[in-house]
Amino acid sequence: MKTEFRRLSKAYVEAHARDFTVLIGGWEHGDWREANFTSDLEKKWEYSFGFFRDEQLVGFCMASGKIPTAYYVHLLFVSEEHRAFGVGKDFFAMCIEHCRSLGLRSIDLKCPVSNPRGLRFYQSIGFHVVDSDGADQTLTLSLACISSCTFESPSLVRRAGKGPRENRRRPVSATIPARPPSSERTRLRGARPRPRPSPWPRRGSPPRRSAPRCPRSRGSSGHPPR
Question: What are the pLDDT digits (tens) for 155-164?
Answer without folding.
Answer: 343 333 344 4
